[in-house]
Amino acid sequence: MSFLDENINKITNADCLDILKKLPDKCIDLVLTDPPYGMNYQSGRREEKYNKIENDCSLEWLPDFLCELQRVSKDDAHWYIFCSWHNIDVFKQEIEKVKRVKNILIWNKNNFGSGDLQNDYAPQYEMIIFCNNNKPLNGKRISNVLNFAKTDNYLHPTQKPVDLFGVLIEKSSLENDIVVDCFSGSGTTAVACHNLNRRFICIEKDPDYWAKSVKRLEEVQQQISIFDYLKTAE
């Protein structure tokens, strides 16, 4: 079995660069990932604090990561890379060295965050850098402002909604395509791909988040298996 096949439909506990360097050229159909934003983020809204996000204190890792991502991606693969305003200029400049930035989508969370309560406006959105070398999107045209309620972050401090990821996956891939998420966190990409019959390669470095995401995926797989059994039995 090839290294690619060994990692299909799995969430792997590893440094993403270690995995990317072993993948063959031009094997990935879609990139959907939520990397560290380089802002040393830690949520202050919970009594029980999450672990600090690894590699979030700088963006020194970004150029090497993007070069490997470009190598393993098919030439027409769409990329969706989440970002915040704090370092959007750095992300955009580095990404444009290897891939065409087509747009910056806005995820409207439909709910305020916290932040500076006295001297700033309440944060309500995140950015998604969309890269496309002129491969058509699937289905009808939609807005570049995506309205999806934020999660309660019960598994990860930057957990994203499954339905948001589902829209992006459906717009930019077909069934059985391979989707890669190099910073899979709570496993949202894996769950959305499983729901939509896409193959996936998900990588998470933090062992605690990895374990939680694997359990989450297994629970979803079991639920769908039971549902399919009940439909067959009718």
Helix content: 25-40%
Radius of gyration based on Cα positions: 18 Å
Structural class computed from helices and strand pairing:
alpha/beta
Through-space gap between termini: 38 Å
What is the ordering of alpha helices and beta strands? HEHEHEHEEEHEHEH
Number of β-strand runs: 8
Number of helices: 7
Beta fraction of the residues?
A: 15-25%
List the helices and strands and how they pair.
Elements: H1 3-7, E1 10-13, H2 16-20, E2 28-33, H3 62-72, E3 73-83, H4 88-95, E4 101-108, E5 125-131, E6 145-147, H5 162-172, E7 178-181, H6 188-195, E8 199-204, H7 207-233
Parallel strand pairs: 1-8, 2-3, 2-7, 4-6, 7-8
Antiparallel strand pairs: 3-5, 4-5
Helix pairs in contact: 5-6, 6-7
What does this structure look like?
The chain is globular and about 55 Å long. Strands 1-8-7-2-3-5-4-6 form an 8-stranded mixed β-sheet, with helices on both faces. Helices cover 32% and strands 21% of the residues. By secondary structure, it is of the alpha/beta class. The N and C termini lie far apart (38 Å). It is built from 7 helices and 8 strands; from the N terminus they run αβαβαβαβββαβαβα.
Q: Would you summarize the structure shown here?
A:
This protein is α/β, with parallel strands linked by helices and 234 residues long. It is built from seven helices and eight strands; from the N terminus they run H-E-H-E-H-E-H-E-E-E-H-E-H-E-H.
